[in-house]
Amino acid sequence: MKHLHLLKGLPMVAILLLTACEQEQTALTIDAIAGKATIKGRVIYKSGETQTGNYVGEVWNLATGQTVYAYLSNADLTGDPGAPGETAYEAVVDANGDYNLEVPATAAGVGVRLEFSSFEGSYQQAAGINTTTGALTYKTLSGYYQTGSMVLTVKNSLEYIRDCSTYVFTARPVLEETTTTDEYVKVSGLLTFSAESRNVDSTMVTIVKRPAVGQKILVGFGTSWYSAMSYAFTAGEDNLAIFEVYLPMTSNDLSTNLTLRPVSFEGTYLDYIWASGKYSTSKTLKGKYEWDGFNGTQSVILEKGFTTYLGTALNYTFQAYPDYAQ
């Protein structure tokens, strides 16, 4: 495990004015901290879909070889509110998918931000069902995996477990991709999730809808279910999360109803708190994002050779785990 002292968020002039003596003093102060805390966990990612009986199952892999970074506040470490920058520690995920970080800690607590390295990879997505054998057919997407950061406070002599299973796969566009095949029709729609947004002066919080990238949706067509994974797409100034599912067609066109069921996922939610006349503080909640129950059945006209676009997005809302605040 390695660590590095960083100065982040300072103007270049300020960085140049810091003397070598001051930087060495900060490093010596941090290195002299006797207290230690342990942060460890398992890192996994969903790499595709597979057939599980009559349903579409998930394939999960260990994120072996990826790097976990812990950024510690120098102000917390030294007890000096004016101490600039952060000290970074890192560990590599082992063959079992586990990482282990030992970092300096105090009795008062040290703020830590965990980040996980992004990486290139592929994703196996169910594209439809072979109408003769009943077996799933797949397409392999190329792209990259990335995930957000975690924030926690560590104290001396304590151990903290922070597993990560929130990697999101983003497919890279494929040039000249065929829209459909002779046996399938493509249906495309949008996934969103509700989040809080604070205005510039922190006097108002509104609920906005953001793209739910990397989430799975099940589509009921006839007596069968099909699945798709949403991916990031930019249209002008709009960032979207689009899913595409391929449905088998025996006729040239069909008017029918589709049943849509977005799959719940675990995540965090930034909750802004009203204090002293403003939404000046926030806390991170952990819980599940669940489909809000709207637009679950949509009437469509399917036609071979064309993509059917669903008119209304499906949205997730957040449900916090009881008594959880990070």
Description:
- The N terminus is likely disordered.
- The protein is built from three helices and 25 strands.
- The protein has two domains: 176 residues, no CATH class; 149 residues, no CATH class.
- It is globular.
- The protein has 326 residues and is mostly beta strands.
- The strands form six sheets. Strands 14, 15, 18, 19, 21, 22, 24 and 25 form an eight-stranded mixed beta sheet that branches. Strands 1-6-5-8-11 form a five-stranded antiparallel beta sheet. A four-stranded antiparallel beta sheet has the order 17-16-20-23, with no helix packed on it.
Q: What does the secondary structure layout of this molecule look like, with pairings?
A:
Blueprint: E1 2-6, H1 12-17, H2 20-31, E2 36-42, E3 44-52, E4 55-62, E5 67-73, H3 74-78, E6 86-92, E7 98-104, E8 110-116, E9 119-129, E10 136-146, E11 150-154, E12 159-161, E13 168-171, E14 184-198, E15 205-211, E16 216-221, E17 224-229, E18 231-235, E19 238-248, E20 253-262, E21 265-275, E22 278-291, E23 297-303, E24 307-309, E25 314-320
Parallel strand pairs: 2-12, 14-24, 14-25
Antiparallel strand pairs: 1-6, 2-7, 3-4, 5-6, 5-8, 8-11, 9-10, 10-13, 14-15, 14-19, 16-17, 16-20, 18-19, 20-23, 21-22, 22-25
**What structural category characterises the helix and strand content?**
mainly beta
Order of helices and strands: EHHEEEEHEEEEEEEEEEEEEEEEEEEE
Backbone shape: globular
Number of strands: 25
Can you tell me the number of structural domains? 2
Spatial extent as radius of gyration: 24 Å
Helical region count? 3
> Into which percent range does the helicity of residues fall?
under 10%
Q: β content, as a range?
A: over 45%
* Overall mean confidence score, pLDDT: 82
Distance between termini?
Answer: 26 Å
Question: Biggest sheet: strands, sense, closure?
Answer: 8 strands, mixed
Poorly predicted ranges: 2-28, 175-181
